[in-house]
């Protein structure tokens, strides 16, 4: 299976304000996005990929030049891969509020010339993101998606599409997600937010004006988040109680265990590239998502508008952040509406992170489902050939795609 | 069932250094403790209660005067209660390194006149605490305990007694505990420690010299710890997704959900009375406890010295911090040694915190076991009568006990 090769991010500016669920509005804004594969003549083979907390529009392929970062779902998206770009036209879009290119807290605040939004960036919700994505599709000339797919918070967006714009999407693929956060989920988010907000370098969210970054808080938030992405068993398998040295040093502040070293390293990396205000916004978007709330706490009633959509719901046995029971709540609400839903509970050891990995059974389920999506979309033959099933050579492969 | 009434903490000074597992030693030190009930003439009815992370020697009863705080295990310990002070002589002792009276980081450092230990307080382990407790028993004239009991980290100390001083204890009651921390347990501890250590008011642990306290970090640590004490289900039952106001305010920094309000309140209270260096020390003691490590990672071999002890092991179905599977590891190691062990897995909804609550089945198991302990100890008749099964009146009950 080949990679989509080298890719370039595109951007689209929107001059009309985006009305937000909070009652506020986002003034003119920019969305960055990438596409892979080819939109067919009927414009019927587009698949939107929604990102989760710390990902972006860079779903597949590599960037040219210094930054050769590979897309976060590159194992899934590409020619011959389960989400086959020979058949389907795939769009990755960065949500407003992010720190990866779309308008967000680090962008200039139009109301305060010379300053970034910082903490004044409006609170955005899953529904707002779906609306912003819909406007991008308008501009790309895509009336209806063949499918929308996402994992975790991305799965909430995929569900949101069927609730908000059910006529504009045929299939919804919601992976490792939940119909809302549990009290424990919210509690973990709140600990992360308190770590950030109480960092003295946070300055009420206007740290950029002070020339500092609340990296300490962001590190703590990331360490905590990271624990919830992994299963207890996978952490034991990978790190166990292994010490960094042959014998313990008996220190409260130095690293003793490998797991500590790993978490600190991950946190350090994260704090170098992620924005603290974005972290607050995105955890709040998770907290607020609750489609049943607007339907008298009746999830089945909430899904009534989606009666013509078709769903694939996937969960992972060791995911304790969004446990299979939460996915089954979604499935039950769909079944109660006699909506076409397939459900796969994958026995995988990796916890919540499993949705990003290429477990064979998981990818097998997605491949089969996307074959159906492509068939129904009347997907065109690809305009290019990929001569070998091997990955493209690093840096300049034969399957080079530029976004349109 | 009556309360033990008003109690007074005692203290004992030890002039001889305590050799520590780290190779260092604790110079002269003081232990504070409380006792309830009466030591019989044979000195055979003493039960030691070991405390966990944020508790102390104040196990039962109330203090006189302004501070009427009730002991942390008052529902278990008292006349006619499962750990019946009419039959057994109960000792609660505060461990070195604590912030509740025994020598700890807030105590004067003998090597630096005029300064507190702060971060220079030596790292203490479960084994060191057991040794310190044994010295207290020496001074109280108690050669052998009828039983030692503890939950969580206290359970580790109870187990530690049977490994280190098996001849000095008859029964070990280990509740909601584990033979060591999992990688995930260590990871949560590490997040808490990083929150504390990276608080700018921490000053490398010498915050007292700077006239500040790292309360921000301590609050984050406590919020996180608190989540791990509760079950997902009990948080949902108690807080769910309830908002503080009828409608969301759409804010990243203000409180939206009841669970956030609760956690912040708990954290604020905790940060007022708990010492940050103690938090580091106690989480490290948890991390380091690993009796199998000294026995070739063979837990059964580790328990070989305890072959003449008898055990009660108790776990709770919804405890995900120290899950029943961890207790079963202990039971298996004991059974492999043909050691007398009773095991109760209590179906309780409250998660790890269940060990502090008075679930009827849980207390029924403990009551039955302590009746056996008392019988074997030849417990004397009590020297006092408690005239009614009602709790003693507040402040000055008929069952007033002063520690000896």
Protein architecture, described:
Two copies of one chain form a homodimer. Chain A has 404 residues and is an alpha/beta fold. Chain A has ten helices and 14 strands. Helices cover 32% and strands 16% of the residues of chain A. An eight-stranded mixed beta sheet of chain A has the order 2-5-10-6-11-12-13-14, sandwiched between helices. Chain A has a two-stranded parallel sheet with strand order 1-7. In chain A, helix 1 crosses helix 2 (153-164), helix 3 packs antiparallel against helix 7 and helix 4 (215-229) crosses helix 6.
Task: Quickly list its features.
homodimer, 404 residues, alpha/beta, 8-stranded mixed sheet, two-stranded parallel sheet, globular, disordered C terminus
Low-confidence blocks of residues of chain A: 382-404
What is the alpha-carbon Rg of chain A in Å?
A: 21 Å
Coarse shape of chain A: globular
Q: What is the total tally of β strands of chain A?
A: 14
Largest sheet, strands/sense/barrel of chain A: 8 strands, mixed
Order of helices and strands of chain A: EEEEEEEEEEHEHEHHHHHHEHEH
> What's the pLDDT, averaged over the residues of chain A?
93
Give the largest interface pair and sizes: A-B, 61 and 61 residues
The protein's oligomeric status is: homodimer
Strand content of chain A: 15-25%
Strand order of the largest sheet of chain A: 2-5-10-6-11-12-13-14
Distance between the termini of chain A: 22 Å
Helix content of chain A: 25-40%
Structural class of chain A: alpha/beta
SS field, number of helical segments of chain A:
10
